[in-house]
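Protein record

Derive tokens from sequence
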Amino acid sequence: MVFKSALVFSAFCALAYSQDPASGTGGLTIQVGGKTVGRRSTLNLTNAAGVSASGIVQSCSDNPSENRIDCRSSYNSAFISTHDSVHANENYCHAVDATTAFTCKLPSKALSGYSTGITLLLNTEQPCPSSCTLNVDNLGSKSIKRLDGTTDPGGMLLAHQPQWVFYDGRVFRLVGVGAVAEASATDQRRDVIARRVIGAMDTMTYAAVITLDVTAGDLHKTLTANSAGNATINASTGGLPGQHMWVLVANDRVNAKTVTFGVNFRSSGTLAGTPGKTATVEFVSDGTSWYEVARTLNL
């Protein structure tokens, strides 16, 4: 006859102690997932390496009331990252170098090696006006390229403006710099590099007093009305320093109209119209007033 006493320590692993009365010998029968994996007199819970120092940690306690020993598994968070820690800053790469040979160390755990698809949030203290490299956790320098994987950043990686990069198996690519971003990039002098920038056109209703909304666009046009007289155009504000705008005044074909530039304008004088002709006036702002820089008549 064989007597058994079960010791359950997880949902998938069961232990049974059995003793043969005839021989007086006993041991533990270990089952995992309902299948016997062995029978020994001693059970030792360890990691794969044979020690319980890192990774999965085992903890057991005696449970006399249930006539069993309860074992629980936990993990070492310094060895196994949690979802919250990974989501927080595990991939933050802050390069404090004074050159474009960027280096960084990941905040919680050193990267074991470069593998395709690794994504990092790169924040540099220096811009990359032409070419640059990145070395993470002393694994070796890799070139940083634009999204196409071949073009150097060329001023599209700016200091203190974090950008996502990913490793494609060969180089780090700037994920946030694609065709749209490249069209509005800035160079090392902070000048805009763009294929085309088109300002909005604002059509103003002609009246004796016209308020020009300087935020409505860069081009403001009005067509004089035959039934109306002369007009005064006032700017809503003095604009922003360096801002340009153009005013088009199209004169009706019946009567010549005179347009005066009033509040917030510094013009060279009134604009005398010609029936059926259009005039343009260009202004630039110093942040306080709009100064006339050019005008063309009888277009």
Notes: The helical segments are 83-89, 179-183.
